Amino acid sequence: MPPVRQWIRSPFDPEARYGRKRDIHWVGYKVHLTETCDEEKPHLITQVETRPAIEQDNEATAEIQEELVKNQLAPSQHLVDAGYVSAKLILDSQEKHAIDLIGPVHVDPSWQSRTPGAFDASQFQVDWQAQLATCPQGQQSNGWYPQKDSQGEPVVRITFDPKTCLACPVRSQCSKAKNTGRTLVLRAEGRHQALQVARERQQTDDFKSLYRKRSGIEGTLSQGIRSSDLRRTRYVGQAKTHLQNVAIAVATNIKRLIDWLNEIPLASTRHSRFTLLLLPA
Ligand code: SF4
Q: In this predicted model, what pLDDT tens digit does every residue of 93-152 receive, in sequence order?
């Protein structure tokens, strides 16, 4: 069998692929839209990316940004859904295009990060040049091993001396290993720091208020679906489907410009009746 990405799913369109998002399944493509979100200005679609449905959202991020840069439409802050963010993408966006990629990053999955008082990775000082980590008790690591994770991404495994850890008075807050010292697995230099900064930032009120602007794109998708049947491709093949998506984006932009010139305000987010009961009058 060929890799699943190459499986032909439709006898009518050999480029169409199987896609799934939560409980929605489909065969075809996926469209990614980027729009402006300046206050008091019309929200215009600046980039349309059409991909096979099987691709993950984060596979599109780099190309979306490259096209925005090429067309001199790059934002200084790029607000995206969690699916479009990774430590590598945050770093690449900053280094290649000076774009601040903003979206929720995954939280540290370790038990230490979920236990109050326990020592998660953020509490260790890491000297990347000297290849040494210092734990909250002031002990230094005794091993530094660059490796690749299951996705092929560079990580470093850092170990601490079992003798020191087994005698440590705060061991229960740090490690559950019975015979070995604490082990840390961190993303490579740069990516680790980018992830730590993003994790800290997403806890702040500033992040929450800035990130609220991203929700406008859900309205854009909804508008495309309701007014132009964005969920259905009328054509065979990715190139023609992309052209259809671009045409829908152009139509949406024209409508939004006309609404803005006529001073028709943006629709506010709709709430369920139950939510409305909880909102202040
Ligand atoms: S268990 Fe080891 S790594 Fe953890 S705080 Fe104690 S000495 Fe440091």
A: 999 999 999 999 988 889 999 999 999 999 999 999 999 999 999 999 999 999 998 888
Task: Say how far apart CA 64 and CA 75 lie, in whole Å.
Answer: 11
One domain, residues 98 and 236: yes
199 CA to centre of ligand 1 in angstroms:
23
Query: Do residue 127 and residue 145 come from a single domain?
Result: yes
Which of the listed residues 147, 178, 196 is the one where a domain comes to its end? 196
CA of 191 to the centre of ligand 1 (A): 24
Three-class SS of residue 70? helix
C-alpha 72 to ligand 1 mean position (Å)? 50
Domain boundary among the residues 196, 220, 248 is at: 196
Q: Classify the phi-psi angles of 157: left when phi > 0, otherwise alpha if psi is within -120 to 50, otherwise beta.
A: beta
Q: Which amino acid is at 25?
A: H
CA–centroid distance, residue 159 to ligand 1 (Å)? 10
Residues 180 and 153 both lie in one domain: yes
The pLDDT assigned to 277 comes to: 79
Residue of the nearest CA to atom 5 in ligand 1?
A: 137
Q: Which residue matches tokens 């993408």?
A: 89
Q: Which domain holds residue 144?
A: 111-196
Mutation test of ligand 1: which of 111, 112, 115, 137 has the most ligand atoms closer than 8 Å to its C-beta? 137
